[in-house]
Amino acid sequence: MANIEPTTLFFAAIFTNNILLTNFLGLCPFLSISKNVESAFGLGTAVVFVMACTTGLNHLLYYKILVPYDLVHFEYILFIIVIAAFVQLVEMIVERFFPPLYYVLGIFLPLITVNCAILGASLFMVIRDYTLVQSVIYGAGSGIGWLLAITAVGAIREKVQKANVVPKGLEGPGITLIITGILSLAFIAFSGMIQIQ
Fold it and tell me: Is residue 197 included in any domain, yes or no?
């Protein structure tokens, strides 16, 4: 994978291989927080920061410690510890400087630790044998793709809720999954442009 240009990898991670809309990773916080644009954007920004930083750090730890010392079987444990540490850092920053956002996100901010999209980005980095630069670029692109998807769905859900046009049985997760499916189909239009495997 060393021959993929960083800009190609970045845009592919955002659009054609969107970690949420093509791999369906990170759906739990996505469904819960995408009720309005403000909270969706706040959580998405935190995910971008955590995903970009942890993917790069996990790359270093994987190739400098786990592989040379034949400890690859500890990758899940190490990746989750790194992710948890960064989430704790983000939680302290948001609580200190953005208290309203901290209370809106509630329990979902610390739950970024178990957001499978963030762990998935680190695992894809290993599976695809990315370099350090590619890993950071891929992590940032995947985070921005996740942010783009959750913000778009948050905006659509706000509009739909204000219009009061959703049948009673589809309110909540039902309409969110339908919107996500349609948005996922829209992102398929980008699939012929750039592909990464």
Answer: no
* Domain assignment present for 170: yes
Burial 142-180 (b: 16+ CB within 10 A, else e): bbbbbbbbbbbbbebbbebeeeeeeeeeeeeeebbeebb
Could you list the residue range(s) of the whole structural domain that residue 35 is in?
6-188
Confirm whether 77 is domain-assigned. yes
How many distinct structural domains can be found in the chain? Answer: 1
pTM of the model: 0.89
Name the 3-class secondary structure at 196.
coil
Please report whether residue 102 resides in a domain.
yes
- Among 150, 138, 148, 195, smallest CA distance to 176 is for 150
* Closest C-alpha to 48, from 111, 158, 129, 136: 136
How many other C-beta atoms are found inside a 10 Å radius of the C-beta of residue 188?
Answer: 11
Per-residue pLDDT in tens (0 to 9) along the chain, 197 residues: 557 888 999 999 998 889 999 888 998 888 888 888 988 898 898 899 999 999 999 999 999 999 999 999 999 999 999 999 989 988 898 899 989 888 877 777 887 877 899 999 999 999 999 999 999 999 999 999 999 999 999 999 899 888 888 888 888 888 888 999 999 888 877 776 655 65
107: left (phi over 0), alpha (psi -120 to 50) or beta: alpha
